[in-house]
From TrEMBL:
<protein>
    <recommendedName>
        <fullName>histidine kinase</fullName>
        <ecNumber>2.7.13.3</ecNumber>
    </recommendedName>
</protein>
<keyword id="KW-0472">Membrane</keyword>
<dbReference type="InterPro" id="IPR036890">
    <property type="entry name" value="HATPase_C_sf"/>
</dbReference>
<dbReference type="InterPro" id="IPR036097">
    <property type="entry name" value="HisK_dim/P_sf"/>
</dbReference>
<dbReference type="GO" id="GO:0004721">
    <property type="term" value="F:phosphoprotein phosphatase activity"/>
</dbReference>
<dbReference type="InterPro" id="IPR050351">
    <property type="entry name" value="BphY/WalK/GraS-like"/>
</dbReference>
<dbReference type="Pfam" id="PF02518">
    <property type="entry name" value="HATPase_c"/>
</dbReference>
<dbReference type="InterPro" id="IPR005467">
    <property type="entry name" value="His_kinase_dom"/>
</dbReference>
<keyword id="KW-0902">Two-component regulatory system</keyword>
<feature type="transmembrane region" description="Helical">
    <location>
        <begin position="166"/>
        <end position="191"/>
    </location>
</feature>
<dbReference type="GO" id="GO:0016036">
    <property type="term" value="P:cellular response to phosphate starvation"/>
</dbReference>
<keyword id="KW-0812">Transmembrane</keyword>
<dbReference type="GO" id="GO:0000155">
    <property type="term" value="F:phosphorelay sensor kinase activity"/>
</dbReference>
<keyword id="KW-0808">Transferase</keyword>
<keyword id="KW-1133">Transmembrane helix</keyword>
<dbReference type="Pfam" id="PF00512">
    <property type="entry name" value="HisKA"/>
</dbReference>
<dbReference type="GO" id="GO:0005886">
    <property type="term" value="C:plasma membrane"/>
</dbReference>
Length: 424
């Protein structure tokens, strides 16, 4: 249980860091992407306004305007006239016969006129004023417009180079984020033992207290029981003696359950092995047959033979007995108790299903049924009896076997399911 809590603490901490990294690094990458997109639009605007030419002087209005404090001043920084030389672009004009004339191709590397013509026709065939075409490793964003003389022109800008900063930051963010998570997880694994040490010490002291107190309480209970029996032998039998015997039996059962629950939490004390689940369920259901009959309950049992699981024999028997006793206790008068042991669809797990008619349980909160000392009747005056630790014990034992236990309500029935791995 302590190890499970430790790994849960580590998982939650790592997940929290992951969320922080996603928000911070994601925001940074997103801002860089938007900034690159705005930069592409501004450069294209300058190229269109200057009919395919870009210089430090004519770029000043688009890049030097500091009125937009967020986009231009804070994110883009101050305007540097020499920054315009980093862009790769070309411009063409198209006559009425669709012949392409190259106007400016001095700012591209090894791009032949035939390839420029092919890219131009590809852009015009899209029938959009703006779009993207690709050649080799580069993507060019284009914009179709009319010059001051009314001639159709197309300017192309290499967006791959502009977006390189974004992709570099994206890759670095992923690598650094994964690295940070790994380092954080390693450090957390190394120090988590010390972090939860006070909780571990408190837990062990609680378990030790329960065990010691349980053993100490057994002695006065044994004396009370012996005195009660002596009174009966002396002929002083009365309803008070019977009541005392019943309360002693209840307290003894409670103490034994508390000690067993404390030991069950320490999974190291349970040695797992291959056990015959079918035989255990068969024996337990047989023992409860007379009790069910005495309570006028319909008792149906269906057990598939030869199902072996990884568990501990006596603890697994205790789980079955707890569920059967719970079904008997909370079953409606003249109701039905069903017990089924089957294999899962893929024959990897054994499924024990214990159900009983319980019409009043339709609106109950089943999320706390396996909590220690949980009682739906908070006044603890329930006529059904019980101490609220049986199901908690069943859950901890099941988890010690690396299995699962669940509860649900369907129709008029409350259903408990135990899922354990089948032993090969």
């Amino acid at each position: 249980m302590i190890q499970k809590f430790r790994w849960k603490f580590i998982a939650i901490s790592v997940a929290s860091l992951l969320l922080v990294l996603i928000i911070t690094l994601g925001s940074l990458v997103g801002i860089t992407y938007v900034q690159s997109q705005n930069e592409v639009n501004r450069v294209l605007t300058v190229l269109v306004e200057n009919e395919g030419h870009l210089s430090p002087h004519n770029a000043q209005p688009a890049f030097g305007n500091q009125n937009d404090l967020i986009n231009r001043n804070f994110l883009g920084g101050r305007y540097n006239p020499e920054a315009v030389y980093q862009y790769r672009y070309f411009a063409v004009s198209v006559d009425p016969s669709h012949r392409v004339n190259v106007i400016n191709d001095t700012n591209v590397y090894k791009l032949k006129n035939t390839e420029i013509g092919s890219l131009t026709h590809q852009a015009l065939d899209n029938h959009n004023k703006t779009g993207t075409v690709k050649t080799g490793q580069n993507e060019y964003v284009y914009r179709v417009f009319r010059s001051n003389t009314g001639q159709k022109m197309v300017v192309f800008l290499n967006k791959t180079l502009i977006y390189n900063r974004f992709w570099l930051l994206f890759r670095v963010s992923i690598a650094s984020g994964i690295g940070a998570l790994i380092i954080f997880a390693i450090v957390l694994i190394l120090v988590s033992g010390k972090a939860i040490k006070p909780i571990v010490d408190t837990y062990h002291k609680q378990q030790e207290f329960i065990t010691n107190a349980g053993h100490e309480l057994k002695t006065p209970l044994a004396v009370i029981s012996a005195n009660t029996e002596m009174e009966e032998m002396l002929g002083n039998n009365s309803e008070w003696n019977e009541s005392t015997k019943e309360q002693v039996a209840k307290l003894t059962k409670l103490i034994n359950r508390l000690i067993a629950l404390a030991r069950a939490s320490e999974t190291g004390e349970i040695t797992l092995s291959k056990v015959d689940f079918s035989q255990i369920v068969q024996n337990s259901t047989k023992d409860f047959r007379s009790v069910m009959k005495k309570n006028n309950l319909v008792y149906q049992v269906s057990i598939r033979e030869g199902i072996n699981v990884i568990a501990e024999k006596h603890s697994l028997t205790e789980i079955v007995n707890i569920l059967l006793d719970n079904a008997r206790k909370y079953c409606d008068p003249h109701g039905k108790v069903q017990v089924r042991l089957t294999r899962s669809t893929l024959n990897k797990n054994a499924i024990l299903r214990v159900s009983n008619t319980y019409k009043e349980g339709k609106n109950e909160d089943y999320s706390h049924f396996f909590d220690r000392f949980y009682r739906e009747d908070e006044s603890h005056n329930s006529k059904k009896g019980g101490f609220g630790i049986g199901l908690a014990m069943a859950r901890e034992l099941t988890e010690a076997f690396r299995g699962k236990i669940s509860v649900s309500h369907n129709g008029d029935e409350i259903i408990f399911r135990v899922n354990l791995k089948i032993a090969k």
